[in-house]
Amino acid sequence: MNELKIGWASRDVSTGKPVIIPGQFHARISQGVFDPILVTALVIDNGADLVAFLSADIVVIRSFLLDRIREKVADLNPAIPVAKILFNATHTHTGPTTYGDQPSQQMGSSTASSDEFPHAGIEIASSNDYYNYFVVQAAEAIVEAYRKRTAGGVAYGYGYAVVAHSRRVVYFDDVSKRPGAVINSTHGVNGHARMYGETQDDQFSHYEAGADHFINLLYTFDAAGKLTGAIVNVPCPSQNSEGEWKLSASFWNEVREAIHAHYGNIFILPQGAAGGDLAPRILHYKKAQERRLNLKYGSEPEPISEWKARKDIAERITSAFSEVLSWAKNDIKTALPMTHVVETVQLSKRLITDEEYAYEQQQLDTLLKTEFKKDGTPRERLVHDSQLVAARNRCQRILTRYEEQAKEPKLPMELHVLRIGEIAFASNRFELYMDFMHRIQARSPFTQTFIIQLAGTPGPDGGTYLATDRGAWGKGYSASRYCNIVSPQGGQELVEDTVRLLKAIHSP
Predict the structure, then answer these.
(1) pLDDT above 80: residue 105
(2) Residue 394 included in any domain
(3) 471 lies in which domain range?
(4) pLDDT for res 184
(5) Total number of domains in the chain
(6) Rounded to an integer, what distance in angstroms lies between the CA atom of residue 302 and that of residue 284?
(7) Which of 77, 175, 251, 402 makes an SS bond possible with 310, Cβ 3.0 to 4.6 Å?
(8) Is 225 left (phi over 0), alpha (psi -120 to 50) or beta?
């Protein structure tokens, strides 16, 4: 009874075509592949319930992507319960677009699509073509993993790997009131806090939050006890090399390479735990880190930005992977109770005030009068024009939210809560601030609780930051009205709903 069956599959979904790379306000067009972009599927089934994990090296899940993948899986194998597909993005900022070609306002994004700005002199491949290709590859990976289910076991544990650091810097003063402060819909949204703020500042006070150096691990084994793969859950978005114009999985590529060097070509399914206020870079120790990395890896130019930092992160994750495996493998379970609950929860929105609405109307009018760039290189024009469109879109989204909030004050979100023995997984669609994760984990009845951020939810929209009260007080990118569809109150509602379901599915 409850005997586990486990299946894995993966696909390389890299493309050599010049597709848009989302993740910045301006559009970037891929100039090739630096390292593979992967989708990885893991199906765990105990005969009574199952989960189909899916992870992809992309920035966010939007534009009905989850819906289309579920539809394709159902077409390929109607026996698979597609509601149990739990899909997460790693948040690499150098992955190909999965938004399709529809206008950005229809896909819950401010990022400009290729038909919203001129790009003479720069070829941009069809986003619809890549979108359809990605859907097929992801669906086929799930179907293959389901087909390959065989008897096996799991082991779990946690270790320590420094990957993330706080990326929100707090100052004694309100930086928006400093002489010459920029105020706009993109980077100029600061108060007492700034995303990636300068720490060599006489008004520097502290980082808004700490960081979480836990790494949660679930290992899988075949019937003979041989390691076949692992879920690696790290509270950090994979945002190294985030400004590049080549496709890259960020540090997850080096993690896979390092683990494969030790354990062979096993499957690795990466998950980001809560990291909305975290990033894989240190802000106040830059010179010391540069010296460390140059002495450790050599001072020659890097083939891609932050490549040495990526290798350093991969070493720490791999070390934790090995340390935890050394003792977790002593408790491999081949039969476990499973319960996978999927529920749509309603979260209170961050409401737009009358004053904010009036300000956005004025700001949008100004932006609409701003012309596209006429001089410069094709790339310079593309950067300027696509960022201008993104700024306009951010204002327009505020206006739309204001007009809809009276009749739609709540945001629906698909929430997955999963039990596998004495561990649990809980999902959310957001770039979730770390405090919310700790509130869930602290109250969870399970031995270990894996939080999965940036999980797919049905419909056009996905992602967006979910800030705490102290984040909203400090303002700054990730804690502004442009970034927060859901309020801190809605964040606590997410905590309460998640804890409620965790307690409901737990049994001694």
Answers:
(1) no
(2) no
(3) 5-164+209-346+410-505
(4) 87
(5) 1
(6) 22
(7) 251
(8) left
